[in-house]
Amino acid sequence: MSEAIAKPLAKYAAYKRKGNFVFLSGVIAVDPAAGKIVRGYEDVPESVRERIGWTGEFSVDVKEGPIRAQSWYVLDRIRATIEAAGGSMSDVFKLVQYFRDLREYPGYNAVRKTFFGDDPPVSTVVEVSAMLPDESVLVEVEATAWLPQ
Question: What local confidence, expressed as pLDDT, does residue 76 receive?
Fold first, then answer.
């Protein structure tokens, strides 16, 4: 299994294939092996920072960095997991997105566009009171893909 796929925090599967469908568990911006939560631009590869909104201005980046970095990390793990299952992001047709605060949605949406462009999947967006492992997790995304065998 690829090192870049989404890693569950407990004993559950990252994804399951059922016929032509691939169902991903909710993905958050946590690397359980490293015990690290993505908290800002400094936690994503330098090569993607500007693409997802990094300005180099502390007053902007400290506010927008956490949701944009977490969004990129989550969507990139979804990409890697779907690829490990034999597909691509264009095969993802449904996302369920959970936010601690819906005011974070615009930052997430800007990053999501870099993964899906002008053909985004159908979506459900929900605000929740808490996510594991702690309050610094801002977004969780589950995905469903259609991958004909």
Answer: 96
Q: How far apart are CA 143 and CA 73, in angstroms?
A: 14
Question: Do 73 and 29 form a contact (C-beta atoms < 8 A)?
Answer: yes
Q: What's the pTM?
A: 0.93
The two three-digit tokens of residue 130, written as one number: 């808490």
- Name the residue with higher pLDDT: 66 or 148: 66
**Tokens matching residue 61:** 């980046």
Q: In angstroms, rounded to a whole number, what is the distance separating the alpha carbons of residues 100 and 114?
A: 22
Residues 6+ apart with CB under 8 A from 124: 95, 96, 97
CATH of the domain spanning 15-146, picked from 3.30.470.10, 3.40.190.10, 3.30.470.20, 3.30.1330.40: 3.30.1330.40
Give the C-alpha distances (Å, rounded to integers) separating 13 from 54, 94, 106. 33, 19, 30
